[in-house]
Design a protein that fits this description.
The chain is α+β, with helices and mostly antiparallel strands and 85 residues long. It has one domain (3-81). The chain contains 1 helix and 4 strands. The chain is globular.
């Protein structure tokens, strides 16, 4: 099981992000749930450059953008579960 998350300074629709998903086989739990744009907090137009990728078997329980905490990025809350065999 793998989880990769963080500020990757790249939007989800870029060639690099698509290649990363293809090469690793990891999934983006945002797909079908929204873009969750996190940067910058100080502008009306924001971009989804903070990412969460995980193994396909990992289940998403909850995903939401949290309120501004004074950073230039909004925090993301994610709850994941590994199913029992």
């Amino acid at each position: 099981m793998q989880i990769v998350l963080g500020d990757l300074n790249d939007v989800v629709w870029s060639r690099a992000s698509k290649l990363f998903k293809m090469e690793t086989g990891l999934k983006d739990p945002r797909v079908g749930r929204g873009t969750f744009s996190t940067f910058p907090t100080y502008a009306p137009v924001r971009f989804p450059i903070d990412h969460i990728f995980c193994s396909p078997l990992i289940e998403l329980i909850e995903l939401k953008r949290m309120p501004n905490i004074g950073s230039d990025h909004y925090p993301i809350y994610v709850s994941l579960a590994i199913p029992k065999p």
